[in-house]
Amino acid sequence: MKTALYYIHILLSLWAIGAIIYHGRRPSRSLGWVLIIAVLPFLGVVLYYLFGMNRRKFKFFNSKEFDKRKRFGRPQSIAEQSPKMEFDRDIRKKRLAKLITANCDTHPVSGNHIEVLHDGGETFNALFKAMEQAERFIHLQYYILEQGDLLDKMLELFERKIKEGVEVRILYDSLGSYHLRGRPKKQFQDIGVDIHPIMPIRLNNLLFSLNFRNHRKIVVIDNKVAFTGGVNVSDKYIKYGDGLGKWKDTHLKMEGPIVNDIHLVFLKDYFFASRNETFEVKAYLSEQPEQGKVVAQVVSGGPDSDQPAIMQQYISMMNQAQTSIHIANPYFLPGEAFLQTLKMVALEGVEVNLLIPKKSDSMAAKYAMFSQFEELLGVGANIYLRKDFSHSKILIVDDDLVSIGSGNFDIRSFELNYEANVLLYDETITSNMKSEYLDICEKAEKVSLETFKNRSFGQKFLEGLFRFFKPLL
Q1: Of 116, 172, 183, 473, which has fewest CB within 10 angstroms of its CB?
Q2: Is 393 a catalytic residue?
Q3: Annotated catalytic, 118?
Q4: 3-class SS at 194?
Q5: 431: Cβ–Cβ under 8 A, 6 or more apart, which residues?
Q6: Is 231 exposed, middle or buried (0-12, 13-18, 19+ CB in 10 A)?
């Protein structure tokens, strides 16, 4: 029996390593998977099959549903109405905007009013106030819809609004909102909510969909106001608990032409998840009057995109930096291309600051993240450990560019998840965000290169170990 298992293990390992060599796109990630397979007999092969295979080569990304998704385009009438912004005098912004347009089919649009919401309290106060005023529809999409006070409040509000004639549609990720199954979901269906999981986890599609999740957080109300950012529907944002305290995060409230662009991201996901062939997209879009002066651009990407749009957005922004880069994220686990770009701009004299929580909700992610610090500190980057737990995904460049959204600085957000960011070309918002960022850094613990080099052998070992698992984190 042992001999048979040994040969099965050898055959499976050879198959997996052959697949890694044949389909692998990056040597560093391929080597990581080879090491996982070598260190974890049988389990390593299973993990690679579930999480590491390049699904673009297989049925999942050649199905009719994904073909329909990729052909979903914005209605031409809406595209023509949007007040596109041209950066003829600023080559930095022009190049960045052109890249995003090529990847996401969105343009920078002017005439927006954008409000930055700095925590869960601000976010949910603004969100519930806007939903109370809904007259036509509420479209809501989250990675996590977690049972608790917030979800109960939404259920009660939706029941009232539906009785008033308001349409309510909900999309949720079937893994992130796993506990929404059964009775909790039926509660929404019973009051008339049109609710759908995105890529539901079922036995017949498990191997092709488990690793690809929809991580977006989008709410659109009457196509007049929209919300997006990093906040999920979870009581963690309004109550203390789980050892990390009350979670912090950053969200956006948007009014103006940008609402159509973020709404189209939701509508595309709804069209895909609901399989409603008669759904009339144009009925939920409309010409948007100017509401302010902010220029904004939606950045959306996913595993079926031709290019890794979120990663390219971040790298392009860093390449445009002239004076400073400020990054805030709890899961700073980017690939080699991102790290090399960050190290290069630091060596060129650009100030590089990284702000992360000292405590983490994932020990594996924390150790893998810390394993990168020495090389970043070695090129002059500044790393700050904040005392509270912040779930924000922020990139600030110089004094006129800031990105806020759902995209983490990790391989999952770059290649495996559906994400949505909003890039703001605005000096006032950027200045305010930068000032708040630096205030937090002053209260945080600054990591010293010399002190960090002297960390214990045990910590170094755990960092090295979990760095191999970056493709899974």
Answers
A1: 183
A2: yes
A3: no
A4: strand
A5: 399
A6: buried
Choose, from 161, 217, 263, 268, the residue flagged as catalytic.
Answer: 217
User: Is 224 annotated as catalytic?
Assistant: no
pLDDT at 24 over 80: no
Our answer to whether residue 107 is catalytic in this structure is no
Give tens-digit pLDDT for 128-155. 999 999 999 999 999 999 999 999 999 9
Query: Catalytic pick from 185, 236, 391, 470?
Result: 391
> Does the structural domain 309-472 have CATH classification 3.30.870.10?
yes
From the list 119, 161, 185, 222, the catalytic residue is 222
> CA-to-CA distance for 222 and 421, rounded, in angstroms?
21
Average pLDDT over residues 207-221: 84
Choosing from 253, 393, 434, 470, the catalytic residue is 393
User: What pLDDT does residue 471 have?
Assistant: 63
CB-based contact 109:84 (threshold 8 Å): yes
Catalytic residue of the set 119, 235, 304, 398:
398
Decide if pLDDT at 250 tops 50.
Answer: yes
110-294: what CATH class?
alpha beta
Place of tokens 């957000």: 413
Residues 409-456: tens digit of each pLDDT: 998 899 889 999 999 999 999 999 999 999 999 999 999 999 999 988
**Is 398 one of the annotated active-site residues of the chain?**
yes
Phi first, then psi, for residue 321 (nearest 5°) are: -65, 135
Q: Which of 93, 107, 161, 215 is catalytic?
A: 215
Percent of the chain with pLDDT over 70: 81
Q: Distance between terminal CA atoms of the chain?
A: 34
Where do the structural domains in the chain lie, given as residue ranges?
2-53, 110-294, 309-472
Q: Which residues, 6+ apart, have CB-to-CB distance to 350 below 8 Å?
A: 321, 322, 323, 324, 325
Which residues are CB-neighbours of 146 under 8 A, at least 6 positions away? 177, 179, 232, 233, 234, 235, 236
Is residue 217 among the annotated active site residues?
yes
